[in-house]
Amino acid sequence: MATLGLDLERGLFLGIDFGTTNSVVSIFDFKDGEVQTIPIDGSNIFPTAIQFETDIEDENKLSKIFGVQAKEAAMIYPQSTILSIKRFLGTDENIIINVDDKEFSFKPEQVAGEIMGYLKRMADEYAREKLNISGEFSGCVITVPANSTDKQKKMTKEAAILAGFDEDSVYLRLEPAAAAISYAVNERKDKKVLVYDFGGGTFDACILEIKLDENQEPNISILSTYGDNDLGGNDVDKILIDMIYEEFKKLTDNEIDLFDENIDDCVSKRQKKVALVRLAQMANQAKERLSQAKSTKVVLAPFIQEPKIVNINMEITREDFLNHKRVNKLNDSDKIFEKFEGKSVIDMINKTIECVDKSLETAKIKAEDIDEIFLVGGSSSMPIVSEKIKEKFNKEPFKSKISPALSISQGAAHYCNMIMMPTVKGPVVHEKTIHPIGLEIAGRRFMEIVKAGMDIPKDSLVVEAPEPLITNFDNVSSMAIVVYENTIPSDEKGTFVTNDGMKRLAGTSLRGIPQGPKGQEKVKVIFSVSPDNMLKVTAKSMSDDGIVTELSVDELY
User: Do the beta carbons of residue 27 and residue 38 sit within 8 Å?
Assistant: First the structure.
């Protein structure tokens, strides 16, 4: 591997699976032609956690602790520790922490950038000391959920730039496609594969077709993807949190609300925060134990110490865990709680199967057409997942040689190889559009511009609207440009934006149109879809003094 730095055409790239709960980084080993996961702080799986504290040398600055130490610090310093930052990417919500009675505010991409920066520094150090590679990782391939919004992708990319990667060398690729590469390089056969990706914060069902070329290299085409950005292992954990919290309410006669810091129930804010962190970590551990055993004991002694000592000691069976209906809001928003109230783990797994059905429907194939099911993400290790998959497809999930937790990062490392050494043969992923995208036109009709299943070239797919937009009234000076995605396409004629499955992505106005009679002014609209599945819409007045507007869509796929 000492020659790696000399052979590269595009610099050194790092494959990053930046997860809600854990992150993994990998590199392509040119010497062996294989990928290698880089241990961070001695482990292949790195908790996506950061804790802030006052700098010893300068009290006006903050120092940071990462990974396992930060996750453990959350037990003592919950107010200055941040977990699951990925769930905040794509939002405008600032992250507030308190360190030594001082309040600090960060944007989500800043926090994510700090964690990615640590991953980069540790990977740079490992490459120098263990692999004898000079220099540092200038670029990266970061995987994102298949149903990520455009805004989530942009903030992820911004975090990577803040972490120290070159702006022009940050690439985003879909998690299921990266996982499929890990599968395809080990199983070189023509197959249709379902990637069932149940991570900490999201769920994706992605159907891919793998075909070997004349050199026996896998060519991977994404046939469809469907998922839920608000369903993940964290939500499964909350079922256990709900069960334990119900026991706590019984022990305290429902007189203490741990989730309301402002209520006067004689429990300090700090103790509530510490109790909730311990509760979340115990629930996660119990979930992992219940994947191996039919029951587990949950002991929190003491759980709280004011206004009295409360100990929790309870037995939870796997059956009770799978069937418990959630009753407490916990710390969820009204919207999220409405989604999960009264729902069990069984209900959640059934929801993932509904996503699988949608993905099959979009790909226009049946369950029996799937040759292999590839499980990805920590939550997919629950036995109930394999049971439901077997029930649906009448076959066992693929027994991978690669840990489900490492497969996405290792697939990202294969992507890195394609970028670093574009002249070297290897697996190829043919990026395709997933759903039809178009514009709202007069009468609330939908004009399809980008069709489903279109190949996306390396330099992006550019499609012009089949006909220009025209002004509907005399002397108008602006025109609304409203973009929709048709997530449930049908063969019926006359599609309207009010139909089921129509998703409004974004809108803007083209202002400054030369005034004139109705229908005189025409506007050309061009859609551009990048290999990252990020959409840019350009609208241009076709008159001599035409004006232009551009719109980057906030939500896509």
Answer: yes
